Amino acid sequence: MTSIPRISRRTLGGLGAAGALSALAACGRPEEDGGGAADPAAPVAEGPATGSLTIWAMGAEGEALPELLTGFEEENPDVTLEVTPLPWDSAHDKFTSAIAAGTAPDVAQVGSTWMAEFVSLDALEPTPESIALDDFFPGAVEGVTVGDTAYGVPWYVETRLVYYRKDIAEAAGISEPPTDWEGLAAMAKALQGQPDGKWGIALQPGGDGSWQTVLPLCWSNGGDVVSEAGDEFTFETPQNEEALAYYQSYFTDGIADPAPAEGTTEQDFVSGAVPMFISGPWMMAAVEGVGGDGFADKYGVFVMPVKETSSSFLGGANIGVLQGSKNRDSAWKLVEYLSRPEVQIQWFEQVTDMPALQSAWEDEKVSSNEKFEAFHTQLETALAPPTIATWEQVAAKFDAQIEQVCKQDLAPADALEATQSEAQGIGTGA
């Protein structure tokens, strides 16, 4: 077992989890565990991997994984691997059904918001001591930690930065990106005033996933939404109210569009109609694909502005071994292989997933791109939602209230009061 002391999310952060299906609740760990350390993981047998392994992975990673695993097969010629790619939109239900039926794979990519739920269903094995976690980004380690126990390992990470048109900023007399909240708002207003500017910045006016931008503002202001112990909600605080009011000001001041058309961010960014937005590393290829040759030189990225701290959302995915695997030693050997720096660098080259291992960022294949270095800087302070089994249910309530704030001018204090009440009704799942 790898037991991790409970770390302050004010410094590191933890990844949230989807709400557990009530029909599967009986599969959870006994209540007396109390979210503490699980029973020690059995050691992994020495020697090469053998036998057959089933692996489930989602999206582009699932499609690309067989190519990455050729090296593992060369090192372990007596192992047979079967990779099943799953669509993200149906993967969660397929996993929970397989867990209930006892037909889960040996190894699986685990969505970053599923960890606590899967642990509550007794579906994941604790990480063996033979797999060291000290080189992973601390926030990513907290993301595989439920209670005081790590389950699986971080596989890849992502965080969010501010994208901006450098050429338009220079035309507005701005040579350096802002570093604080006031500077970000002032820059968005200045860029909106340029000839092609319709809006200053693209922000999500509530709805699914809007909490991923608002919650980092709360963290940046010293706020949080769950107590340190993870047993009560803390939406109603002056810090959170100020953060939500700041977000609302972009809409009330006419800087951000309260009714943006879906799927237009790249085009609007390239045209200059909306010269700023907040997103992850995947948008680099998207905007450069629309902008064509030379567009990479026209835009830059910078870390989230500071209030008390510079905080951003920490996401990504983990890789773990499912309880009941009939070949668990070989399964953990595969997880160890995917955790090597050289393999994470190879994965970055293959699918551009950012390595979860800090040492992998020292390789010039990763560090040579200055935009990726900005993501690296943000990863050092990136935070993520609490590791509670009901987080996605609570987040959906928060999203709905954010929409009322942005579109209906609901007072932030009222929105937080409503979210607090709804969250308490749902509970933390403990």
TrEMBL record:
Coiled coil: none annotated. Transmembrane segments: none annotated. Keywords: Signal, Transport. Residues 1-25 form the signal peptide. It holds the Pfam family SBP_bac_1. Belongs to the bacterial solute-binding protein 1 family. This is Sugar ABC transporter substrate-binding protein. It comes from Brachybacterium tyrofermentans.
